[in-house]
Amino acid sequence: MSAYSDPEALYTHARQVLPGGVSATARMNAAIGRPFYIRRGDGAYVEDLQGNRYVDMCISHGASLLGHNHPAIVGAVQQALDLGIICSYETEHQIDLAARLTEIIPCAEQVRFAGSGTEAMMHALRLARTATGRELLIKFEGHFHGYADVLNYSWAPPLEAAGLPAHPRTYPESAGMPAALTETILVVPFNDPPALEAAFAAHGEQIAALVLEPVNYDSGCILPEPGFLVLCRSLCDRYGAVLLFDEVLTAFRMHLAGGQGWSGITPDLAVLGKALGAGLPISALVGRCTVMRHLRPEGTSELSGTYLAHLTAVLAAQAAIDTYAQPSFYPRLAEQCEFFYSNFERVIAESGVRLRLQYIGPRFGLYFGLEEPVTNYRSAARQNRAMLATFVAGCIRRGAYFHLAAHHGFSGVHDRAALALALEAIEGALEDVRLAHPA
Ligand SMILES: Cc1ncc(COP(=O)(O)O)c(C=O)c1O
User: Is residue 1 over pLDDT 50?
Assistant: First the structure.
């Protein structure tokens, strides 16, 4: 067996040349003790080093909303190659993509592109600070906004270090971040109107921005409670702060117009990522002209980079949006969701395992050991991680790939056959959980 058909041997080699054996921390799948190595992907499936096929229930941590190897995306990349792999020049295509986004995303009067969610979120915050002349950011505990030093706080704090539930501590999620930055961020519990109102009342004139995931997918799947996004909007209006939606995950997932289209609440700025490029690296910072005009060269807030808006990704994003915009795309997705979740609920009930399933669109949160609704990070963090690890390992053994982190979902090309295979694996894995973790 060559090193490249044996995952354990490949991982041993990887650890010599890649710190921790991975190219990105999130690629470690602790449920199997190493990354999941694949050699190719096609549609709803990925293939491991030995050629075994798995239904992909992680879909590139949410990016591959059209599955793998989608002909429209392949065609777009080919078009970019035919144009000569143009890089760091403006073409008509960036303008076309920006114009398209202004037509479909409610807050998007203007658009700038970046390479990743992390990068665009960092620029979005700097822009909000420029536009308001203020520094303080309010964020919600359990919401993730990328890895930049200015935003990498309190998305998965250990409960013993997280502070009081009503007054969470601003918890740095990495070593090496300047301590002084914690003073620029206030962390508030999600879905807690009095806590949010109190934060604005105490710091109103200093608040540059309120940032949130309109659906908190990074803590599984936590929906805003009725009226909560309205409150976010009205507090920002009252205190002159920028409302910034992190739509890296919500964009295109449950609605062509993203979380803002789904909720009817229009932020001042938003960042779109992941499904925008359908597997190619691109993100977009979109927003109202009154804020966006602060970007250089017109304004004073910097946003630049050699590889920004690379044509391969720009053309892929156009092709992805054309596909999402087809009249059948979201109705078909809704049918797949109905089929998958109704059967998943049934399988859970039959298994006798304590597991709460929460979902919106083709993305779901799993909370083992819990049955009551999960409404914020503190309740999500009470789930039983050992049960989840047993479940994920059991699914993988049975041919459905899940990641241990909260990135569970499927794509627009997962048909009934693929979802039925996933459900079969889920049923078996729940039996593993029942046996390994008796109630
Ligand atoms: C809501 C949210 N914001 C930002 C990011 C960071 O995006 P990227 O991984 O493209 O840097 C992620 C990644 O998972 C995310 O889920």
Answer: no
